[in-house]
Amino acid sequence: MSTQVNFRTINQLAIPATISGIAEPLLSITDTAIVGNIPADSLESLAAAGIVGSFLSMLIWVLGQTRSSISAIISQYLGAGRLEEVKQLPAQAIFFNILLSVVVLVSTVFVIEEIFTLFNATGKILHYCVSYYSIRVWGFPLTLFTFAIFGIFRGLQNTFYPMVIAIIGAVLNIGLDFLLVYGVEGWIPALYLEGAAWASLISQAIMALLAFVLLMKKTEISMKLVFPLNKELKRVIFMSLNLFVRAIALNVALILAVREATALGDRFIGAHTIAINLWLFAAFFIDGFAAAGNSMGGKLLGAGDYNGLWKLAKKIVLYGMVVSLILMLFGFLFYHPIGQLFSNDTLVLDTFYGIFYIVILGLPMNTLAFVFDGLFKGLGEMKYLRNVLLTATFLGFVPCLYIGKFLGWGFYAIWVAFVIWMLIRGFALLWKFDRKFRPLVQNP
């Protein structure tokens, strides 16, 4: 089964994947922007939204790795022309993943205050964290379910349906945010931060339902749990475990950043919340080409087309770099208006503007890391991805963060550490791909 590697085929996957990929960070960005402009306690509400958002992102990224494993295996079997052999695999993998997520959800409900105390949240911020999380956490299994189905579609070389689901979810979330946060006089009371949590939960439920319906109607993949277990389930589990460890290392960096920003003071965690949401938004924007690499890379590997795989890597890096340069230009042109979308607090905005240029200048390096990250997931190279993240986090990010803190860099130490982190990730993946696949390519 041949796969054309050109601008059209790549962007048929990348553009819808870009739109669907920004759904989750867009939910957080919407919450951040609307919560940051609440008439009372906007600073505390913004800080709480940032802390809870970081923790939920950690849970989703740690337990949501089944998506990449399912996508890799389905795309490889599709490329080899043997898809029939794994049609029962997704239901089995998703069942075990959701079961694990419910266990995690129930276990955190009883220790919410202790969890956010670890983030240095105290007083009113801690209170808001608890109330916000108590609602949003119930959307956690729904998001994992939706992500897993997105992985199935991605493995089938279809990113269109995830895009449709993501657009509906994002639009619904924005509308509900305005409706529930600010309220409608005489009809709906203003729920403020809790309103943002309910908006996200309702949107996640609708997205999960739509994903399930489209999977049933538009594919031959069954969601019925049947036995015996598929022969590839063991491979899915080991891939997911490697990505599980990798995601923990990734979230060590994100959580330490939130913890150190919180320790610096309310205006710093407010500024960090804005910056990290924009960083994640840009990451998922660029991640559309990573998704194309994931889908097409697995299929090309399954078909044994190494020339096509090499061509794919060069093209998705090039296209990703063009997008990152456009984002950089946009960031510098609208440097101050972007910040004003998220907060009306002068101290928070001044702090944010002090490091926003670091976020912008790091985009090309982020592109290299994210694009190869997606490609390696499609190739099933989960062990190497794990090792790269462990190295980048514990030999790059953590030492840089605390050396910078020792030298008195303050808030800058956090974002310089992010740059070093992404530098290690990007070049380690580029080196490995070149070393492993260049010898297999004819006339590279």
Automatic annotation (TrEMBL):
NCBIfam families the UniProt entry points to: matE
Enumerate the UniProt keywords alphabetically: Antiport, Cell membrane, Ion transport, Membrane, Transmembrane, Transmembrane helix, Transport
Q: Which Pfam families match?
A: MatE
> Which ranges does the record mark as transmembrane?
46-64, 93-112, 132-153, 160-184, 196-215, 236-257, 269-290, 316-335, 355-372, 384-404, 410-431
One cellular component term (GO) for this entry is:
plasma membrane
Q: Which GO terms describe its biological process?
A: monoatomic ion transport
Per UniProt, subcellular location reads as:
Cell membrane
- Give the signal peptide as a residue range, or say none if absent: none
UniProt KW Hydrolase keyword: no
> Does the record's keyword annotation contain Cell inner membrane?
no
Topology relative to the lipid bilayer, per the entry, is:
Multi-pass membrane protein
Superkingdom of source: Bacteria
Q: What is its main location?
A: membrane
Protein name, per record? Multidrug-efflux transporter
> Which protein family is it in?
Belongs to the multi antimicrobial extrusion (MATE) (TC 2.A.66.1) family.
Q: Identify a single GO molecular function assigned to this protein.
A: xenobiotic transmembrane transporter activity
